[in-house]
Amino acid sequence: MAKALDEFPHLPLAHLPTPLAEMRHLRDELRARGARNVPRLFIKRDDCTGLATGGNKTRKLEYLLGEALEEGCDTIVTTGALQSNHARQTAAAAAVAGLSCILVLFDTVPYKAAAYRRSGNLLLDRILGAEVRVEDADADAVKIFGALFEEIKAKGGKPYFVPVGGSSATGSLGYANAYLELADQLDALGLDQSVLVHASSSGGTQAGLVAGAQLRGAGPAIAGINVYRKDNAAMAESIHALASKTAALLETPSPAQGSIDLDGEFLGEAYGLPTQEMKDAVELVARMEGVLLDPVYTGKGMAGFIRQIMAGKYAQKEAAVFLHTGGSSGLFAYEEEFTAG
Ligand SMILES: Cc1ncc(COP(=O)(O)O)c(C=O)c1O
C-alpha cells in the first residue's frame, strides 16, 4: 500500500484545484498554419495557485513549509538566480507562515538589461518582506550558506534550507499531488489518451509528476522541455534520481531507468537568455488565449509544445495539456524584449 500524500506535514497555501482550460483559438491557429491531426489542446493553470502571482513552487512549498513548521524552524533560507520565481513564492509562503525569509540570489544570468536588476520578481521579493542578499556568480556557495546558518543560530534562530527550485523529494510531493489532480480532471472529461508538456529546470516538477504517475498507475504521459542545462542526458538522469527518491517517500515503485522524456531543443544559448521562438510563443498565446507566459520557463516550454504539435508528435493523443507553471512577473524584467516595434 502506498503512503497517502495527506500523511506528510503540509501547510495549505495554494488555491486548488487549479483550472484546466481548453485552448481552442490556439488549436485553430496551428491548424491554419498547416498542423495536421492536432489533438484537443488544454492549459493547466498552475499560474493561478494564488500566492503572490502564483506558480508551480507554491505546491512544493506546501510540503516544504509544512516540514519547516513541524521541525520548529523560524527562518526560511533559499536561493536562485536574481529573477527567481521560486524565491518570490518562498518569500510569500514564509510571510503566510509567519516566518522570516532570507533569499541568497546569485547573479548568474548574463542578461544585462537594467530592468532585470530591479524589476519583476526582485521588486516583489522586497515588497513581500524578504531579506535579499545578492552574490556574484562565482561566489563560494558552501562558505556563504555556512556563515549564514551560523549568523541565524547566533541570534537564537533556527534555519530551514529550501534547495534551489524547491526541488527535494519533499518539495516534489507537491507535483505528485498535481498529477493526481490533473488525471482526475482529464478522466472527468473522458480523455484517457493524453500528454502533459511543461518546462523543466531544477527538475522537481517533472520528478513529482513522474512519481505521481507511479502512484496512480494510469494517466497522462509526461514530457518535459529543458530550459536549464546544456547536458540534456545528465539532466534527465538527475530528474530520474529525484523521481525515484520521491516515489520512495510515497512507498511506490521507482520509474523505469531511461523513462524520462526531456526535450533539449528549446534552451537556446543559456538559461535565462531569450530566444526568438520564446518571444513568438509568449505573444501568440497572449493574443490567442489571453494568457501571459514568462520569458525564462513557460515561454520556452510553450515554444517546444507548439513545435511538437506542428511536427505531429501527439497526433495519436486525444488531448495535449500544457502545464502553465507561472512566472509572468518575470516579463517586467525582460520588458525590452517585447517593446520593440
Ligand atoms: C515559471 C516556472 N516554470 C517552470 C519552472 C521549472 O520547475 P522545476 O524547477 O521544478 O523544474 C520554474 C522553476 O523555477 C518556474 O519558475
In short:
This protein is of the alpha/beta class. Helices cover 40% and strands 16% of the residues. The strands form 2 sheets. The protein has a 6-stranded mixed β-sheet with strand order 1-2-10-7-8-9, with helices on both faces. It has a 4-stranded parallel β-sheet with strand order 5-4-3-6.
Give structural attributes.
4-stranded parallel beta sheet, Rossmann fold, 6-stranded mixed beta sheet, 341 residues, 16% strand, 2 domains, alpha/beta, single chain, binds pyridoxal-5'-phosphate
Written overview of the protein:
The protein is built from 10 helices and 10 strands. The protein folds into 2 domains: 5-55 and 168-337, Rossmann fold, CATH 3.40.50.1100; 57-166, Rossmann fold (3-Layer(aba) Sandwich), CATH 3.40.50. A 6-stranded mixed β-sheet has the order 1-2-10-7-8-9, sandwiched between helices. A 4-stranded parallel β-sheet has the order 5-4-3-6. The protein has 341 residues and is an alpha/beta fold. The mean pLDDT is 97. The chain starts with 19 loop residues before the first strand and ends in a 17-residue tail after the last strand. The structure holds pyridoxal-5'-phosphate.
